[in-house]
Amino acid sequence: MIRIEGLSKSFGKVEAIRNVSFSAADQRITALLGPNGAGKSTTLRILSTVITADSGTASVGGCDIASEPMAVRGEIGVLPHATGLYERLTARENIRYYGELHGLKGTSLRDRVEQLIQDLEIEAFADRRVKGFSQGQRIKVALARALVHDPGHLILDEPTNGLDVMATRALRELILKLRDEGRCILFSSHVMQEVANLCEDVVVIGGGQVRFQGTLDELIASTGHNNLEDAFVTSLGDSAHE
Amino acid sequence: MSKLLTVLFKECRDNVRDRRTIISSFSLAIGGPALFIAMMSFVLNTAVGKSDDPVNIAVVGAQYAPGLVAFLESENTELLYLDVADPKAEVEADRHDLILTISADYPERFRSGKINSVALTYDSSELGSVRRQFAQAREMIGRYARTLGMLRLQIRGIDPAVMAPVMVQEIDTASPAARALSLLATLPYLLVLVVFMGGFYLAIDSTAGEREHGSLEPLLCQPISRRELVLGKLLATSVFSAVSVALFLASLAIAIPFAPLHRIGMSLEITLATCVKIFLISIPLMLFGAALLTVVASFAKSYKEAQTYLTLVILVPTLPLIVTQLMNVEASAVLMSVPSLSQSLLINDLISSAPIDPVYVVVSAICTSLAAALLAWLATYLYSRERILI
Questions:
Q1: Which residue of A has its CA nearest to B219?
Q2: Fewest CB atoms within 10 A around its CB: which of A25, A148, B193, B275?
Q3: CB-based contact, A52 to chain B, within 8 Å
């Protein structure tokens, strides 16, 4: 469970987000939907404790991001939109590195890494260096790395960027499987089709503020449109033209 | 603590696999001593050659000036008699370095007491001993001409002193040994450079490189404190710096015997004990260098930007060395508080087997370590700011 209440953050004079509140439930996929520069990344960065909010609170799995950042880091797995893998390390070494940073060691580390390599179908390239991997292979390894400590929450920042159709489908299936395991998945995107195919809950964010929170159906119903794109634009209101 | 080691091992493993890092980190350490010895041999050979080596002169038309040729033969020369039409072409074709040409009208002019000219052909752009040989040959011929002139004056009943109202006497106090020693004094300077070059690329890769590749943000989401993270990176940089110094010392120990120091009656031996001492004295400098490089590279967002900054930073620790070398400063407790300068002064003493005050060693180690700790703290501070991601 991710709960956000009244988060605000400014960078200098630029107000990135203002009074953002929403929640994402366990065993559901929640989309954070918004145009570029809407404040999606800022919100996710605050949640993953790499930057701190000016005001407001947030908790991940019951741990407060401000007072227990280390506990929060243990509760979430983050898949950044640039996968941020180390090119000269092998897939296995990349996953192991984060495992060690999470305090895993010895056989439990080895077993966990092996299991992820099997679950995400990385075996074929697990011991090759990342340099030269396709975007689809990179996403799989980055996802395995984000899952190495078996977190209850997963933050995916535009994960389908640069993926071809087959890789997107494979990733979608993986995300559904992770949800079925009971994880809370927060998924940022600006691709409607992606959201329509995968997510149950939607948070629309525009101009640094939350414009809508509810299920997909509710979003479509509340705006009176029958396609998601129109509903999205309508829900953004004035902020769409900023 | 174990997470610090995790970061340390990862950075080392990651960078060992990078050819660019390896070349940049260790090429100076391995190749530097060879280059240094080559320079030293060159200086010693050209300087020492002055007193012993005979002057090689190829003579064209020797039969026209038997007196001059006999005089030259009595000097420290090796004459080669030639019969070529164009001495210039011979020198240009590199067949001879120095050719003395005596023209056919020499005997006639000699007998009638007219001014005679002989030609010395050589290539002044040639490195090595050619210019020295030319100068010596000119000096010999000049001496012959003066002796001849004096004799002619005496025959005419004139005091030869009339011809030379003022005589210049040259006294050069620089011995070849002194020149070689001043070269030796650049060795600590080279060592300081090796310390910094060793950590140069790793410092960039683990900071600006990590930002450029987008791997910093997910890394900062991991449950490791910024201090452990930064110290791990910093120590990895120090490890590369240490390996670089070790390679440098090994390479130096191998190269030193090839320097022809025996020609100036000097012996220089870099023993294992000296190597170990130099290494130990350099350890605080490695930490200082790693921290300095890490701090500066942390401001850069890309490899290129970091490279630009660090190239300038590398010059900083070498500045005090250049200044003191120009001013010929003696070691003192105050100077021992300056990182890089204190190490180079101590190493200088170690190489020339001068006695070393243990107090100096302690002051140097403490001051440099404190400076390193301060910079490490600064690096941690930089990493705990949000700006590092933006």
A1: A98
A2: A25
A3: yes
Of how many residues is chain A composed? 242
* Cβ pair B339, B193 in contact under 8 A: no
Q: What is the pLDDT of residues B51-110, one digit of tens each?
A: 567 888 999 988 898 888 998 888 888 888 888 888 888 888 888 888 999 988 899 888
Spatial CB neighbours of A84, under 8 Å, sequence gap ≥ 6? A142, B213, B214, B215, B216, B217, B218, B219
Among B6, B217, B386, the residue with its CB nearest the CB of A80 is B217
pTM for this one? 0.79
Measured distance CA(A147)–CA(A124) in Å, rounded: 19
A73 in contact with B at a CB cutoff of 8 Å? Answer: yes
- If DSSP codes are grouped into helix, strand and coil, which group holds residue B134? helix
Residue B96 has a CB neighbour count (10 Å cut-off) of 18
Q: Return the residue of A nearest to B13 by Cα.
A: A89
Residue (of B204, B209, B306, B194) closest to B246 by Cα position:
B194
pLDDT 10s digits, A39-89:
898 999 999 999 999 999 999 999 999 999 999 999 999 998 888 999 999
Rounded CA-CA distance A74/A52 in Å is 17
E strand spans, chain B: 55-60, 77-82, 98-101, 119-122
Domain boundaries, chain B: 2-44+178-389, 50-175
What crossing angle do the helices spanning B303-327 and B272-298 adopt, rounded to 10°?
Answer: 130
Name the token pair of B378: 């600064």
Minimal Cα distance from A93: which residue of B?
A: B10
- Residue B235 CA to its chain's centroid (Å): 30
- Which one of B3, B14, B221 would you mutate to disrupt binding with A, by most A Cβ within 10 Å of its Cβ? B221
Encode pLDDT of B76-93 as tens digits: 888 888 888 888 888 888
Residues of chain B whose C-beta is under 8 A from some C-beta in A? 2-3, 6-7, 10, 13-15, 17-18, 213-224, 386, 389-390
User: Does A102 contact B13 at a Cβ distance shorter than 8 Å?
Assistant: no
CB atoms within 10 A of CB B148: 15
Check if the beta carbon of residue A48 is closer than 8 Å to that of residue A4.
Answer: no
Q: Are residues B248 and B332 in contact, defined by beta-carbon separation less than 8 angstroms?
A: no
For residue B216, the chain A residues in CB contact (below 8 A) are 84
Q: For residue B379, give the nearest of B199, B200, B206 by alpha carbon.
A: B206
Predicted pLDDT of residue B347: 87
Distance CA A116, CA A177 (A): 13
Which two tokens mark B285?
């400098």
Tokens 């940022």, located at residue? A188
pLDDT in tens, B163-190: 777 877 777 665 555 666 677 778 888 8
The CATH superfamily label for domain A2-83+152-241 reads P-loop containing nucleotide triphosphate hydrolases (3.40.50.300)
Q: Are B68 and B79 in contact (CB under 8 A)?
A: no
Is the domain spanning B50-175 CATH 3.40.630? The answer is no
Contact A84 B223 (CB under 8 A): no
pLDDT at A241 (0 to 100): 53
A76, closest residue in chain B (CA to CA): B221
Question: Distance between CA A28 and CA A31 in Å, rounded?
Answer: 10
